[in-house]
Amino acid sequence: MTAPQDQLNELLAQSKATSFLDSTFATYMDDRDPLKALRSEFVIPTRGEIAPGIDHPDESCIYFCGNSLGLLPKAVARYVKEEIQVWGEGAVNSHFKHRFGRPWVRIEETVQEQSARVVGAKKDEVAIMNTLTSNLHTLFAAFYTPTATRHKVLIEAKAFPSDHYAIESQIRWHHLDPKDSLICQEPREGEFLLRTEDILETIEKHGHEIAVVCFSGIQFYTGQYFEMEKITKAAQAKGCIVGWDLAHAAGNVPVQLHDWNVDFACWCSYKYLNSGPGGIAGIFVHERHANDFDRNRLAGWWGHDKATRFDMVNEFKPMSGAAGFQHSNPSVLTTSALLGSLSVFEQTSMQEMRAKSFLLTGYLHHLLVTEFSKDVLDIITPTDPEQRGCQLSLIFKRGKMMEIFEGLEARAIIGDERKPDVIRIAPTPLYTRFEDVRKFVVELKDLVAKIYN
Ligand SMILES: Cc1ncc(COP(=O)(O)O)c(C=O)c1O
């Protein structure tokens, strides 16, 4: 893809705007945005709802927090309401007879194919089940099989704490000590990002004793999009299993789990996939493991062969593919919420979203580096657009982050803060306008002038 800055320069000339901060430019970009219609598919909180007493209370707030909780797609209400109706009318019979054609006994299949498209997988490589940390445990139970000589797990030093806890507990589960069996990849002194070359060096040096390499696709704090294909290939060449936590990547960047030969992956659906708080999560198991029935797995009746599931026999016969890793009958309400949110993704593609995201986050990046001095704010997310998704993580200097954060919220601009000094800003392409980014920068300039004076 052409570098966003080159595209933006060309578009600035076409727009006839005087500068990138000129509203003519943002309007020009929004008018030609191929995804612009999708914004109306979402419920966007108003300024008044976010900051009571603010002027223009009925206008939309500026929402940059899809990296934490995506906005509510209007379709979700419809799908959930239908399930409540069916529950009321049919009760238990709705497992098999469903007026909208979604019998609950197969409800997870309604979201399987669309989820697979989002993560670049084949349908049978994906199962929609549980929640993220539970799925990480499920996958580790199957894929982490330490031996005396190959017992280590390689993760990021600053992995999301839940992943760190889960993986440490998996190591202990095998009566091993994380002090000996966990390798945490640290950034270099004074740096925030992990250099691919350093990760590859660790793999080269320790690969023979590493059982599993498990990183996040996109780092939650820095927004770094790891070079997934390269890391997967290098680790597998050393005989390691490679898994990815795609919490911040699914629905944000077009990953290709199948083609990149990833062993396993998991993700949640409440961030960029907009399925609602605590939404149902997903797993990927590469098709080459589809019939690997000797692998230990945590069994449950929903992973059992569909043809005999209701025969209630004691002999567990797992289904082929990711479906064979399911445990319980899934939550119908959260699955139907995901179905509603995926109906928006079906109107576009991850490639089209990425093309807009490149420009939108590129625009934000450009404005931040040109309008603010580095002794006020610095961006720790990679400058290279290929190595980030939509999120930029901004460090506010001199202990002023919370003041800035609260000031933004008072102006109905929602990002999120990570103490001590980072605000994460994620202009998600499905519902964010160029004008939102421009207004944010204008408001931030005003706040900075007041707070840093
Ligand atoms: C990278 C990552 N892993 C794990 C989690 C935990 O997710 P859950 O509470 O859904 O298990 C999160 C939550 O934000 C996350 O960002």
From TrEMBL:
This is Kynureninase. InterPro entries: Kynureninase, PyrdxlP-dep_Trfase, PyrdxlP-dep_Trfase_major, PyrdxlP-dep_Trfase_small. It comes from Mortierella polycephala. Belongs to the kynureninase family. GO terms for cellular component: cytoplasm. GO terms for molecular function: kynureninase activity; pyridoxal phosphate binding. SUPFAM superfamilies: PLP-dependent transferases. The lineage of its organism: Eukaryota, Fungi, Fungi incertae sedis, Mucoromycota, Mortierellomycotina. One of its GO terms (biological process) is anthranilate metabolic process. It comes from the Eukaryota. Pathway: Cofactor biosynthesis; NAD(+) biosynthesis; quinolinate from L-kynurenine: step 2/3; Amino-acid degradation; L-kynurenine degradation; L-alanine and anthranilate from L-kynurenine: step 1/1. It is found in: Cytoplasm. The gene is BNA5. Its EC number is 3.7.1.3. The modification N6-(pyridoxal phosphate)lysine is found at residue 271. Its cofactor is pyridoxal 5'-phosphate. The keyword Cytoplasm applies. Pyridoxal 5'-phosphate binds at residues 132-133, 160-163, 216, 245, 248, 270, 301, 329. Catalyzes the cleavage of L-kynurenine (L-Kyn) and L-3-hydroxykynurenine (L-3OHKyn) into anthranilic acid (AA) and 3-hydroxyanthranilic acid (3-OHAA), respectively. Homodimer. It catalyses: L-kynurenine + H2O = anthranilate + L-alanine + H(+); 3-hydroxy-L-kynurenine + H2O = 3-hydroxyanthranilate + L-alanine + H(+). Keywords: Cytoplasm, Hydrolase, Pyridine nucleotide biosynthesis, Pyridoxal phosphate.
